[in-house]
Amino acid sequence: HVQLVESGGDSVHTGGSLRLSCVASGFTYSNRIMGWFRQAPGKEREGVAAINGDDTINYSDAVKGRFTISHDIVNDTLYLEMNNLEPGDTAMYYCAAGPRLYGGSWSFSKWYKYWGQGTQVTVS
């Protein structure tokens, strides 16, 4: 069965950096969209970044220029490199995956069939 396992969350100071990892397993297809979402207490879950099956990459405006998403195809591991972290980045971060997206917004969680358990990022 499909599993997404995140790691790398931590508590850091403003301006710090973190790299989140998400190891994927159990997929029977490689042509998929993979993304990072986050949810802060009392707020709705929001898309952070995604990489589609055609290698198209998208970022939310809130993280553009500070975060970088990448996918190690050999090890099927999704990464999120986060730099210049701000208190507003504090949230639970989730890895998500689904069939390649051919239309619609990458940031809509409904397109993602599989979700990890989350990893906490706290910036103070």
Provide a descriptive summary of the structure in words.
- Strands 2, 4, 5, 6, 9, 10 and 11 form a seven-stranded mixed beta sheet that branches.
- The chain has 124 residues and is mainly β.
- The protein is globular.
- It starts with a strand and ends with a strand.
- It has no helices and eleven strands.
- Helix content is 0%, strand content 48%.
Key descriptive features of the protein:
single chain; about 120 residues; mainly beta; 4-stranded antiparallel beta sheet; globular
Topology of this protein?
Elements: E1 3-7, E2 11-12, E3 18-25, E4 32-39, E5 46-51, E6 57-59, E7 67-72, E8 77-82, E9 91-99, E10 114-115, E11 119-123
Parallel strand pairs: 2-11
Antiparallel strand pairs: 1-3, 3-8, 4-5, 4-9, 5-6, 7-8, 9-10, 9-11
For the record, give the distance between the C-alpha atoms at the N and C termini, rounded to a whole number: 37 Å
Mean pLDDT: 96
> How many alpha or pi helices?
0
Major sheet, described briefly? Answer: 7 strands, mixed
Net shape: globular
Rounded to an integer in angstroms, the radius of gyration calculated over CA atoms is 13 Å
Protein structure class: mainly beta
Poorly predicted residue ranges: none
Strand content: over 45%
What level of helicity do the residues show? under 10%
What is the element string, with H for helices and E for strands?
EEEEEEEEEEE
Strand element count: 11
Concise overview:
This protein is mainly β. Helix content is 0%, strand content 48%.
